[in-house]
Design brief:
The structure holds two protein chains of two kinds. Chain A is an alpha+beta fold. Chain A contains 19 helices and 30 strands. Chain B contains five helices and seven strands; from the N terminus they run βααββββββααα. The chains are: A alpha+beta, B alpha+beta.
Chain lengths: 785, 190
C-alpha cells in the first residue's frame, strides 16, 4: 500500500469540538423532568449503623424520595466480581467481598453510601442530605497493612477469620539455590503509598427509564460501557437490548472509571425504574476523594541475590497489598506488581509471596500504571542500592542484566494479570537504553557538569531508569467499519475515549486501508448501540487490541470494495487501486467508481443479492491476542534540590519509548507527557494521607497537591525506538500508562544522587518536601549520635 | 492531633478548679458555645458552633471528667459530632500551685477528627483549636479578675458573654498571626 497514514503526525480530529465546548460530557445531559440525586456518606471509616433518621429531610419541599438499603428490598445485592482470582495457580486464597449499593449494617470505609436523596434540584438534594441523621456506633478502624494481619485484630469483614483478602505464592527457578551461590545478598523494606487518579472530570451518570418503550438509557462517565450495559441488564432483570449505555467524551479515566459497579451505578438505574423519571448525579470533587477508587498502597520486603559483577541471580519478595474495604478487582494490581518486579532483566530465580489485605480505606483498583510502578520501583531501588554498596557502575549493571534480543519471546514462568503466562513478546533494550544515556548526556553530566555545579554549592543529581510495561492484553475488542452511500466512512468500537485520541488514531488505520482522508472517517466509541461486544479502555490495550480489530474490519471492507468494484468495472482485483475515495483501474484512471456509489450498489433496493453474500460495504471484526505486547522505555532526569525548602526543580527530562509501531507519534508523545506529569506527582507531591482512624486528611485539591505546569521539567524530550510487536498485524504496543511507571524510581535515584553527600537511602514513595526534610534531619541526628 | 500547653491563672488551684466546673462560666468562656449543662455527675452536654476555614456547623456532644484529684488533676474526655464531622479527644489537666496566688494549668491531649472537618479543615484545625483555647483563657482571666474585684467590693460577680462574631474575628486574627509567624516572614512580624 503506497498511501501511508499510520505513523503520521495527524492533528486530532476530536479537538475542534473539545476545544470549543462542543463535545458532550455526561454533565451536559439534561432531560425534561429530570431528578437529581445526592448521597449521604459515612464520616466514619468503620462503624455500625444504629439508626437513620430521615424525618426532617423528608419534609423539605422538592424532595421526591429518600432511600436506604432497606428500601431496595430484593434488589439490594453487592456488585459483581469484576475480575476473578487466577484459576491456574495452586493454593490460592481469595475471599471475594464486593461493594454494596447502600450500606445495610456496617460502614467499611469513610465515604460509603448510607442513603440517597432524590430531589427536583441538586441544591435541594444536598440540603436534605444535611438533614439526615445517622446514629453510628464507631468501631476501631483497620488501617495498618502489617498489624491488620495479627491474630485478634479488628475485622473489616466480620464473617472472615482475618483481614486477609488473598494469598498466593509465585515461583520461578530456585531462589534459595541462587542465594546460596550469591556473592552478595541485599535486603530492604519498601513502603509505597496511595495517590488519587484525580481526573479532571469526576464521575457522573444520567439514567432514563422509558416505561412505554421498556428501555433504559444510560450516560455514564465510564471506561467500560459494554460491561456496564451487560451488568446493569442482569442486575435489573432486563435483556441487554433493553439497556443502552453511552460513555460520551470522558474527561480522563486513568483507571478508576473501569471499576464497576460503583455504588452510584447500582443505585441510579434502580431509582429511575422505581420513580419512572430520569435521574442525574455528578460526583463532586470531595466525593471523588471518598468514592472513587485509588491505588498503590503496598509494603514490600525484598531480597536480591547478586554475583560480584552485579548479575541478578534471584529476587525474593513479600508483598502486602492494600485492597481497601472490598476486592472487586481481584488481583490485577498485585499480579502486575509481580510481573514488573524483575524489570527488563533476565532473572532466572524468583519467589514472590503476595498477601492482600482488607482495610477500612477506600477500595483500590488500577490507576495508570496499575501495580507496575511498584514493581519497577523496588527492582530499580534494589539495583541502585546494590551498586552503591558493591561499588559498581549502575549503567553497566543494567546492561549486564537486560534480556537479550535473541531471548524473545521470553517466558517468565509466572502468571500475569490476564492469568496467562507472563511472556515478553519482543524487545531490544540496550539500544534504547544507550540512546537515553546519550540524549541525557549522562557521562558528561557526571564527569563535568555535576562537579562544576556542586562546586557552586548546588545539589543537583541524575537518575536513569529502564522499565518494561506489559500492555495490550486480551480478552478481545471489536470494531465495525462501514462505507456510507456518501462515500464517508463510519466506524465504531467498544473502547470508549477518555482523551486517548481514538477518533484520530483509529481513523488513521481506516483511512490508510480505504485510501480516504482521516476527516472522512467518523468513529463512535463507547456507545453500546453501535457495537455489541467488547470490554473497555484499560491496561494500555486500546491501540493494540481495538486497533487491530479496526485494522481487521477495515481491511475486510477493503476486500469487499475491491471485489464489488472488480465486478462493476469488469477488471480483475489485482489491477484495481484505491485512491482519494475512488476505486480505479490502475492503467486507465478515468475508468473508476467512487466508494459511495459502490456502497449504494452493495445495498440494492430491488433485485436480489447473491446467495451467501451480505449487504453493504461493512464488516465487524474482533481481535484477541494470545498474550500481551511488552513495551520498553527509559526515563532519565536531572534535578536540583533547594536545601532550604526541599523543593525540587527538574531541569531536564528525557524518555526513550519503544512501543512498537506508533499510530500517531504526537498522540504517543501526549501520553508520555501526561504520564510523566502523573509520575512526578506520584513521586513527590501527591499522597493521600489517612490517619489511624481511616480518615482521609487531605481530601481536597487545596491539600492534595496535583502538580502544576511549574513542576514539569524545563526541558522535556521524547525519543522513540521501534521493535514491532510480533503478535499483532499493526505491530503496536501500548503506551498509555508508560509515562507514569518509572518516574518514582528515576526520581529517587536522581534525588539520592543530588544529595550524595548525605548518603541518603530512599525506600518509600511518594516523598514530599516535608518528608525529605525529615529524612535528611534523621540522617544528621544518626550521624551525630 | 496533639493539643498541649500551659497557662498561668491569677488564683488558687481551688479557684481555677471551680471555674472549670462552672457550666455558666465555661459556656461564656468557650467561644461558640450555645449550651452547656451538667446531665449527671461529671458528665456535661454541650452544643458548640465551630468554624474551621470553609467548614462550619454545630457540634453536639458530651464531656466527661474522670480521674479527679482535687485540686490537682483530672482527665477530660470529649466526644462530639455534627454535620461537619466528628471529634473525639482525651486530655489530662494538671493544676500546679505556684505561690498560693497563682496556678499553672498544664494540659495535654490527643484529639481525633473526622468527616469534612478532617478532609477539608485539617490544615486549619490546629490553629483554630489553639485560638479557642487562648480565647477561653483570656475570658477566664477576666472572670478571675472580676471575681477578685467583686469579692473585694462585696458584690456579685458579673460576666460578659462573648458573641459568635467575637469568636470568628479572634480566630481570623490568630490564623493571620500564625501565617506571619512563619520563619521566612520573621522580619515582617508586628
Amino acid at each position: 500500500m503506497t498511501y501511508k497514514v499510520i505513523g503520521k503526525r495527524v492533528k486530532r480530529v476530536e479537538d475542534p469540538r473539545l476545544l470549543t465546548g462542543g463535545a458532550l460530557f455526561v454533565g451536559d445531559v439534561n432531560l425534561p423532568d429530570m431528578l437529581h440525586a445526592a448521597f449521604v456518606r459515612s464520616d466514619y471509616a468503620h462503624a455500625k449503623i444504629k439508626s437513620i433518621d430521615i424525618s426532617q429531610a423528608e419534609e423539605i419541599p422538592g424532595v421526591v424520595g429518600i432511600f436506604t438499603a432497606e428500601d431496595m428490598g430484593e434488589d439490594w445485592k453487592p456488585g459483581p466480581p469484576l475480575v476473578s482470582p487466577p484459576p491456574t495457580l495452586e493454593d490460592v486464597v481469595f475471599n471475594s467481598r464486593r461493594q454494596v449499593p447502600l450500606v445495610k449494617d456496617k460502614v467499611k470505609h469513610a465515604g460509603e453510601i448510607i442513603a440517597v436523596v432524590v430531589a427536583e434540584t441538586r441544591y435541594i438534594a444536598e440540603d436534605a442530605v444535611e438533614e439526615i441523621f445517622v446514629d453510628y456506633e464507631p468501631l476501631p478502624a483497620v488501617t495498618d497493612l502489617e498489624k491488620c494481619l495479627e491474630p485478634g485484630h479488628t475485622l473489616v469483614h466480620d464473617d472472615l477469620d482475618s483481614n486477609l483478602a488473598a494469598h498466593l505464592v509465585q515461583h520461578k527457578g530456585d531462589y534459595q539455590a541462587a542465594k546460596a551461590e550469591a556473592d552478595y545478598v541485599l535486603k530492604r523494606k519498601f513502603k509505597l503509598d496511595r495517590g488519587a487518579a484525580a481526573a479532571m472530570e469526576n464521575r457522573g451518570i444520567v439514567v432514563d427509564w422509558d416505561q412505554k418503550n421498556q428501555h433504559l438509557m444510560v450516560w455514564d462517565a465510564t471506561q467500560s460501557p459494554i460491561p456496564i450495559r451487560n451488568g446493569m441488564a442482569e442486575r435489573l432483570g432486563l435483556r441487554t437490548h433493553q439497556v443502552r449505555v453511552v460513555a460520551p467524551f470522558v474527561g480522563g479515566g486513568f483507571g478508576p472509571k473501569i471499576m464497576m459497579f460503583y455504588a452510584e451505578e447500582m443505585v441510579l438505574p434502580w431509582l429511575t425504574m422505581k420513580l419512572n423519571r430520569p435521574v442525574k448525579w455528578i460526583e463532586d470533587r470531595k466525593e471523588n476523594f471518598y468514592a472513587t477508587t485509588q491505588e498503590r498502597e503496598q509494603i514490600q520486603e525484598v531480597e536480591m541475590a547478586l554475583s560480584k559483577e552485579g548479575r541478578i541471580l534471584g529476587i525474593k519478595q513479600s508483598i502486602i497489598h492494600d485492597t481497601g474495604a472490598y476486592d472487586p478487582y481481584g488481583l490485577t494490581i498485585p499480579l502486575n506488581t509481580q510481573s514488573h518486579s524483575m524489570g527488563p532483566y533476565d532473572v532466572k530465580n524468583y519467589t514472590s509471596e503476595l498477601s492482600v489485605v482488607f482495610t477500612n480505606k477506600i477500595i483500590t483498583t488500577p490507576v495508570r500504571g496499575a501495580g507496575r510502578p511498584q514493581g519497577i520501583y523496588i527492582v530499580e531501588r534494589m539495583l541502585d542500592i546494590a551498586c552503591r554498596e558493591m561499588d559498581l557502575n549502575p549503567l553497566e549493571v543494567r546492561r549486564l542484566n537486560f534480556i537479550q534480543p535473541d531471548q524473545f519471546p521470553y517466558d517468565h514462568e509466572i502468571i500475569d494479570q490476564a492469568f496467562t503466562n507472563l511472556v515478553f513478546d519482543s524487545g531490544n533494550y540496550q539500544p534504547a537504553y544507550d540512546k537515553a544515556v546519550e540524549k541525557l548526556e549522562y557521562e558528561r553530566f557526571i564527569k563535568e557538569e555535576q562537579p562544576r555545579l556542586r562546586a557552586e554549592g548546588k545539589y543537583i543529581g541524575i537518575g536513569l531508569v529502564p522499565f518494561i510495561e506489559t500492555t495490550g492484553v486480551g480478552p478481545y475488542e471489536g470494531a465495525r467499519v462501514a462505507v456510507e452511500p456518501s462515500g464517508k466512512i463510519s466506524a465504531a468500537t467498544g473502547v470508549g475515549t477518555q482523551g486517548q485520541s481514538h477518533m484520530t488514531s483509529f481513523a488513521q488505520i481506516i483511512a490508510e486501508q480505504l485510501s480516504v482522508e482521516v476527516e472522512d472517517v467518523s468513529l463512535v466509541s463507547g456507545d453500546t448501540a453501535e457495537i455489541h461486544w467488547g470490554t473497555g479502555t484499560f491496561a494500555s490495550r486500546g491501540a493494540v487490541v481495538a486497533g487491530n480489530a479496526v485494522l481487521a474490519a477495515a481491511s475486510d471492507v477493503r476486500s469487499k470494495v475491491l471485489k464489488l468494484a472488480s465486478k462493476v468495472l469488469e477488471t480483475p482485483e489485482e489491477e484495481l487501486e484505491l485512491e482519494g475515495g475512488l476505486v480505479r483501474v490502475a492503467d486507465i484512471p478515468e475508468n473508476s467508481i467512487s466508494l459511495g456509489e459502490l456502497a449504494v450498489l452493495a445495498n440494492p433496493f430491488r433485485g436480489a443479492v447473491e446467495p451467501g453474500t451480505e449487504p453493504g460495504l461493512e464488516s465487524t471484526k474482533y481481535f484477541g491476542p494470545a498474550y500481551g505486547a511488552t513495551a520498553f522505555g527509559v526515563h532519565g532526569m536531572i534535578l536540583e534540590v533547594d536545601p532550604e525548602t526541599m523543593m525540587i526543580k527538574i531541569h531536564k527530562y528525557v524518555t526513550v519509548e519503544d512501543c512498537g509501531t506508533m499510530l500517531n507519534p504526537m498522540v504517543v508523545e501526549g501520553q508520555i507527557h501526561g504520564g510523566v506529569s502523573m509520575g512526578i506527582g506520584n513521586a513527590y507531591y501527591e499522597k493521600l494521607h489517612y490517619d489511624e482512624n481511616g480518615q482521609l486528611m487531605n481530601a481536597s485539591l487545596a491539600d492534595y497537591l496535583l502538580i502544576f505546569s511549574t513542576e514539569m521539567p524545563e526541558i522535556f524530550e521524547v525519543y522513540h525506538e521501534n521493535t514491532p510487536a510480533p503478535n499483532n498485524k499493526l505491530g503496536t504496543k501500548g503506551v498509555g500508562e508508560a509515562g507514569a511507571i518509572p518516574v518514582p524510581a528515576a526520581f529517587a535515584q536522581a534525588l539520592e544522587n543530588a544529595l550524595e553527600e548525605f548518603d541518603l537511602e530512599i525506600t518509600e514513595t511518594p516523598l514530599s518536601p516535608n518528608q525529605l526534610y525529615e529524612l535528611l534531619h534523621a540522617k544528621e541526628e544518626d550521624n551525630e549520635s | 492531633m496533639k493539643v498541649e500547653g500551659e497557662h498561668i491563672f491569677n488564683g488558687t488551684p481551688g479557684q481555677v478548679w471551680d471555674l472549670f466546673r462552672d457550666t455558666e462560666v465555661m459556656a461564656a468562656a468557650l467561644p461558640g458555645t450555645k449550651k452547656m449543662e451538667l446531665i449527671e455527675e461529671n458528665t456535661y452536654e454541650a452544643v458548640m458552633f465551630v468554624r474551621v476555614g470553609p467548614v462550619a456547623g454545630e457540634f453536639s456532644g458530651q464531656l466527661l471528667i474522670s480521674n479527679e484529684d482535687y485540686p490537682r488533676q483530672y482527665t477530660m474526655t470529649v466526644e462530639g459530632r455534627g454535620k461537619p464531622g466528628f471529634m473525639k479527644g482525651v486530655g489530662d489537666v494538671t493544676l500546679v500551685d505556684l505561690d498560693g496566688n497563682q496556678t499553672r494549668m498544664e494540659y495535654q491531649g490527643e484529639v481525633q477528627i473526622g468527616g469534612r472537618l478532617a478532609a477539608v479543615g485539617q490544615r486549619l484545625v490546629d490553629t483554630v483549636a489553639k485560638s479557642i483555647i487562648s480565647q477561653a483563657f483570656e475570658i477566664l482571666d477576666q472572670v478571675l479578675a472580676e471575681q477578685a474585684k467583686a469579692a473585694e467590693e462585696g458584690r456579685e460577680a458579673v460576666y460578659k458573654e462573648s458573641s459568635e462574631s467575637d469568636y470568628i474575628s479572634a480566630v481570623a486574627k490568630d490564623v493571620i498571626k500564625n501565617i506571619l509567624k512563619r520563619p521566612d516572614n520573621d522580619g515582617d512580624e508586628e
